[in-house]
Design brief:
This protein has 398 residues and is mostly helical. It has one domain: MFS general substrate transporter like domains (Growth Hormone, Chain: A, Up-down Bundle). The chain is built from 14 helices and no strands. α1 packs across α6. It is globular, with a radius of gyration of 20 Å. This is YbfB/YjiJ family MFS transporter. Keywords: Membrane, Transmembrane, Transmembrane helix, Transport. It comes from Peribacillus glennii. One of its GO terms (cellular component) is plasma membrane.
């Protein structure tokens, strides 16, 4: 691997660790601590998660308006700083309304960082003919989940939950410095003419519509486990002691998953690989409900971690292949639809849990939504290909 490519991947991975592994998903292992110490109900914890994902939706939408790699980096750097400040703010503020605001801003920063860093890294890898390495880039999310999964329980032995947010903000400062240095050393292509051409959208590929719908359902389904897994496991008799471990396992499984799923794409294709990952994830989310013991919790966490970022890597790479021009816009569209699902998921699940007293219904519904995504993606693709064959036959006949 060339040195510049290594710098590019290092910067991209650290950006995802800050934005996703810490800025977004550190809330999952901290949630039970906040819930106990601050006396938060399940619906209020769900609203905090939804505030973050609403911000994520806004950030993703805003990112589609940014043009030119030079401007992408300016907005990326500003978003990293905003993410750090909101993490520190969570450790200082003591009012629920302030937490909602901070999680919203953190979500907006995370959405900008994810889309902008994805656009920068995927464009550069494509330009170098190294798109297969996108799986390594997306492993940053799993690394971040693994890191936060260790830091939260370890730090909790020394500081309360407020101190954990401050520890994570300090770590994020160090990682952001790596992003600034690495992207400078990578000597990114910042030809404005090239970048401006890259933002012009061409005709939308028919399969892209089905991909967007399925990806939105993935956002709605996966986020229930992505938000409440640790708290759910803590509430199952005999598994409370391993609740923090499940999140570490999810992070470990996610680290190599993106590269492995992208390798599978080369053997099969995007649609078959995506459908396989969605089915496995549906099983993983349902397992803690089907088997309410350590086996169900650990295997469910592993299957969840092994698929959720793999699905993101495959969906964004496939969308970019179907729509090679305007990469930041098409990634932004995918992320916005995904974000809509993420807003509805935690709020809806929180209300269900608040009324039913357990997570079972919410997790089963989430699993069913993922299976619906499989059906629509597979059926939509078959329908599109059948229609294309008819059109080609009609053209040849004419």
């Amino acid at each position: 691997m060339k040195r510049k490519t290594s710098f590019l991947l290092a910067g991209g991975i650290c950006a995802l660790i800050v934005a996703m592994g810490i800025g977004r998903f550190a809330y999952t292992p901290i949630l039970p601590l906040m819930k106990f110490s601050a006396g938060l109900s399940e619906d209020k914890t769900g609203y905090l998660a939804s505030a973050n994902y609403a911000g994520y939706l806004l950030g993703a939408a805003m990112s589609g308006l940014v043009k030119g790699h030079g401007k992408l980096r300016i907005f990326l750097n500003g978003s990293l700083i905003a993410c750090i400040l909101t993490l520190a703010g969570m450790g200082i503020a003591d009012y629920y309304g302030t937490w909602l605001f901070l999680r919203f801003i953190a979500g907006a920063a995370s959405g900008l960082i994810f889309v902008l860093s994805s656009s920068i890294v995927l464009d550069e890898l494509a330009r170098k003919g190294r798109s297969i390495l996108s799986g390594i880039f997306y492993s940053g999310v799993g690394m971040g989940i693994f890191i936060s999964g260790i830091i939260v329980p370890v730090s909790n032995h020394f500081v309360p939950w407020q101190g954990i947010w401050l520890v994570l903000s300090i770590l994020s400062i160090s990682l952001s410095v790596v992003v600034f240095i690495s992207f400078n050393a990578a000597q990114l292509n910042e030809d404005e003419n090239h970048a401006q051409q890259n933002t012009k959208m061409t005709t939308t590929h028919p399969i892209l519509i089905w991909l967007i719908i399925a990806y939105g359902l993935e956002g709605l389904g996966y986020i229930v486990s992505g938000t409440f897994l640790v708290d759910m496991v803590r509430g199952i008799e005999g598994t409370g002691a391993i609740s923090s471990l499940t999140w570490i396992i999810a992070g470990l499984a996610a680290i190599p998953s993106t590269y492995l799923w992208m390798a599978l794409v080369n053997r099969l294709d995007y649609i078959k690989s995506l459908c396989t990952a969605l089915i496995i994830q549906a099983v993983g989310i349902a397992l803690p409900v089907m088997f309410q013991n350590p086996f169900g919790a650990i295997l469910g966490a592993f299957l969840f971690g092994a698929t959720f970022m793999g699905i993101t890597a495959m969906a964004t790479s496939y969308a970019r292949m179907l729509q090679p021009s305007g990469s930041n816009r098409i990634i932004a569209i995918l992320t916005v639809v995904y974000g809509l699902g993420q807003i509805i998921g935690p709020a809806g699940a929180g209300l269900l849990v608040h009324k039913s007293g357990n997570y079972s219904i919410a997790f089963v519904l989430a699993s069913g939504i993922l299976l619906l995504a499989v059906f629509l993606l597979a059926a939509g693709t078959l329908f599109t290909k059948k229609r294309e064959r008819k059109m080609n036959y009609a053209i040849r006949k004419y």
